[in-house]
Specification:
The structure is a homodimer.
Chain A: H1 2-22, H2 29-40, E1 45-47, H3 48-55, H4 59-71, E2 75-79, E3 87-91, H5 93-109, H6 118-134
Antiparallel strand pairs in A: 1-3, 2-3
Helix pairs in contact in A: 1-5, 2-4, 2-5, 3-4
The structure holds a DNA duplex (24 and 24 nucleotides).
DNA sequence: CACATATCAGACCTACTGAAATCT
DNA sequence: CAGATTTCAGTATGTCTGATATGT
């Protein structure tokens, strides 16, 4: 139980600092994640369904996040080239610029502030990876 | 960055299973935490302000959680004995019963399902503890 | 008077559900 | 027709801010 509540508390800490860091850019952590996910893909676009799978959120939440990103000119919706049901979210140049700015800020204010050495960070990541895999989260990096 | 997103994802997994487990009892994880915090204290009561400190949430969130718990007869509000500004939340017998039921369920469906050995759990807790302390979370068990 | 505690209102974000529309 | 994808509406939760009332 202590482990579960610890994860909850640390997430609270991360989310609070991340949202505070991203607020001046008009982003939330959820939308930052969508932007980063798109910027990492070869084409800069993904079907909404895939975004939901990778970030483990509901389809309705993806619709909402993409709505806001599109409203701010950071992504565009495009028809799926081969599946008439699908919709692609494609990152725009403005989206790439903002994602870059956001990552610089996040590095400075969040990632670089972690009071852990490389070994601890690696160990933490490895242990959390086991939990993610057991829960069917297949969007694991590496 | 991978560590931060991993913590976020694992918290999502925990919160989803915890809320699903607690739903039949009419609880959310946030309210379960308040109930457990009260049940662990000697007197079964704490000032709202202390609850906010321990769980690292805003005063307004505590007011909200206690409102709902009180509506369901799980806690009572009482005047603070020595500080006229303060309000105590006190757990009721019904609250203790429900907290007990909830903990049995949580043990079965959440805590016992963690696919990690004791050593990994201890290591994870210790590492997260460093992060919590650095963020000024002084409600650490032990 | 400055400060602490609690409440309240309003805005915002995300989750979840079920229903509808479109397409395979 | 069954199933997949997306959207939408409605409900619920929790967060944050700022304002307010009360008490130290």
């Amino acid at each position: 139980m202590a482990v579960v509540t610890s994860v909850m508390r640390v997430q609270q800490i991360f989310l609070t600092t991340a949202d505070r860091t991203l607020r001046p850019l008009g982003l939330t952590f959820a939308r930052y994640e969508v932007l980063m996910l798109l910027s990492f893909t070869r084409r800069g676009s993904l079907p909404l369904r895939t975004i939901g799978e990778r970030l483990q959120v509901q389809a309705a939440s993806v619709t909402n996040a993409v709505d806001r990103l599109q409203h701010d000119g950071l992504v565009l919706r495009r028809p799926h080239p081969s599946d008439g049901r699908g919709v692609l979210a494609a990152i725009t140049p403005a989206g790439r610029d903002l994602a870059g700015e956001a990552t610089i800020l996040m590095n400075e204010e969040v990632f670089a502030q972690l009071p852990l050495g490389t070994a601890d960070l690696d160990g933490l990541f490895a242990t959390l990876r086991v939990l993610r895999q057991a829960a069917g989260d297949f969007s694991l990096p590496q």
